[in-house]
Amino acid sequence: xxxLYEYQGKQILKxxxxxxxxxxxxxxxxxxxxxAEKIAKPVAIKSQIWAGGRGKAGGIKFANTPREAEQMAKxxxxxxxxxxxxxxxxxxxxLDIEKEFYAGVIIDASREVRAxxxxxxxxxxxxxxxxxxxxxxxxxxxxxxGFRYYDALxxxxxxxxxxxxxxxxxxxxxxLYQTFKNYNCRTAEINPLVLTKDGKIVxxxxxxxxxxxxxxxxxxxxxxxxxxxxxxxxxxxxxxxxIEESDLRGTxxxxxxxxxxxxxxxxxxxxxxxxxxxxxxxxLNRQGLKIANYADTSGNPTAAxxxxxxxxxxxxxxxxxxxxxxxxxxxxxQWHHAHGVVKALREEIPKRPGFPCVILLCGNKEKESMEIxxxxxxxxxxxxxFYGSExxxxxxxxxxxxxxxxxxxxxxxxxxxx
Length: 418
Description:
- The structure is a single chain.
- By secondary structure, the protein is an alpha+beta fold.
- It has 3 domains: 22-93, Dna Ligase, domain 1; 97-221, D-amino Acid Aminotransferase, Chain A, domain 1 (2-Layer Sandwich); 235-412, Succinyl-CoA synthetase domains (Rossmann fold).
- The protein is built from 11 helices and 21 strands.
- Helix 4 (149-158) packs across helix 5 (166-182).
- The radius of gyration is 26 Å and the shape is elongated.
- The model has no long low-confidence stretch (mean pLDDT 93).
């Protein structure tokens, strides 16, 4: 699921007639000061990161003056909170809170429901999972019938919300559902939905995630990589996404796992089939090796797509090996993988004499694939080991071979063991 930042979520909630605090996003301390001057009242400075619990982690600060807002933004911008770098802050009016509510919409994919579920609770500001069931009202939505204003009213009435705030709360719940539907969300929540001391209902905070496959419908959101990720995309992630974005034949998933690599022991990892490939990752970890990236090319991709994936993986600096972990006897024709990998190896290995490569490739056209791999690499200055279906279950063996080749590679380069 492609996540949205809080400021993006509030922009689209506002368009759905949900009240949000006055505020704007800033990338510099000076911008934060200017926004605070425009608001002309005490403000909250909120780090924009894809993580909950920012307040407890020091990611939300308060300021009474524009000069204080500038200083608070200076402290937050560029800082690391929950292992995420703060690149933007939301500067918005500080709310005078009387009470907090919760509103959310999720997809319940269970066999019994298979529908969006709208939830409302009189207990906001905490994770909905920790709220007692008697304080939550919910409704599974018939997508053909839709979700209407009186449905939202009924949810609030069931929890005995006072009459004077029933209508604005119902409008907030309805606006959230409309946003969820119009933006193809997988999840959307307002937490807390705030009742201020002067009687206004305002979205204090929000979290939203859009279905990856529908991101192309919403270019205005500026989502660079339509993949679920806990962190903003790296340059390698952006490059890798272009492979999938422009070619839908088969799968090509690549995610950079260690953008700031320190020390030795990183392997460029190229899996085939998600579950089996993870077994290879575990085996490498047991040998004290780390994966610089995780990749998966499956679903019968073309040789061209496999080549581009392998090229991206091998192009990473400071990796000490490449493993193609095809820990599955695939029904796809594996000679496409063989051709693609060979082309990438022929372009990259001459730049790294002695570079270790352990390749496991199993399935249809396995015999021909082995011949392609061996013939295509016989004149290259690398360390190559090729295995077929006889080793498909021997993850530890293959990880040990990877480690042994890496130790030889280090010795050739005069690198002493740590």
